[in-house]
Write a structure and sequence with these properties.
It is built from 4 helices and 5 strands, in the order ααβαβαβββ. The protein is of the alpha+beta class and about 140 residues long. The chain has a domain at about 40-60 and about 70-135: Muramoyl-pentapeptide Carboxypeptidase, domain 2, CATH 3.30.1380.10. A hairpin with a 3-residue loop joins strand 3 and strand 4. The protein is globular and about 35 Å long. Residues about 1-15 have low confidence and may be disordered. Bound molecules: zinc ion (ZN).
Length: about 140
C-alpha cells in the first residue's frame, strides 16, 4: 500500500463534507502518485447510488494518472483520467444487479460491467446510454 500524503488542500477538514459514505482517499490514484481529481458531481451521484442500493460500495479505481491508466489497460481517453469515473467491486450477481439498477435510477448513463467490477462514469463527452462488457 502506497504511503498517503496530502497536498495541503485541507483534506482532513474536507472529509466530512466530501461525502456521506466515502472518504476522499478511496478515489486517489492507486499507483501512489497522490492524484485525486475526482469529480464532486460523481461523488454526489455515488452517495445517492449507495443510498438507493443499500449496499456498501467498495471503490477499486477512481482517479487515474496517465501512467497508471496505461498500466491497468485503461483506454487512452478513459474517464478515470478526468476524475469522472469510478469502478466498484462486485461480489455476486445480486450485487451487480442492485448497483446497476441504483446507478441507472440515479441518472448514470454510462456503465461497464465485468465479472468483479462495475464501472460508472459521468463523462458527458462520451456516448450516453451506453452499457458495455469487460470480456
Ligand atoms: Zn497515479
Amino acid at each position: 500500500m502506497a504511503e498517503q500524503t496530502e497536498n495541503g488542500q485541507g483534506q482532513t477538514a474536507a472529509v466530512d463534507s466530501f461525502s456521506k459514505y466515502f472518504r476522499a482517499e478511496e478515489f486517489t490514484c492507486r499507483c501512489g502518485c497522490g492524484l485525486n481529481n475526482i469529480s464532486a458531481a460523481l461523488v454526489a451521484r455515488l452517495d445517492k447510488i449507495r443510498e438507493t442500493a443499500d449496499i456498501a460500495l467498495k471503490i477499486t479505481s477512481g482517479s487515474r494518472c496517465k501512467a497508471h491508466n496505461a498500466a491497468v489497460g485503461g483506454k487512452a481517453d478513459s474517464a478515470h483520467l478526468d476524475g469522472l469515473a469510478a469502478d466498484i467491486a462486485i461480489a455476486n450477481s445480486n450485487e451487480r444487479f442492485l448497483i446497476a439498477k441504483a446507478a441507472i435510477a440515479n441518472g448514470i448513463k454510462r456503465l461497464g460491467v465485468g465479472t468483479a467490477l462495475i464501472h460508472l462514469d459521468i463523462d458527458k463527452i462520451k456516448p450516453q446510454e451506453a452499457l458495455w462488457l469487460y470480456a
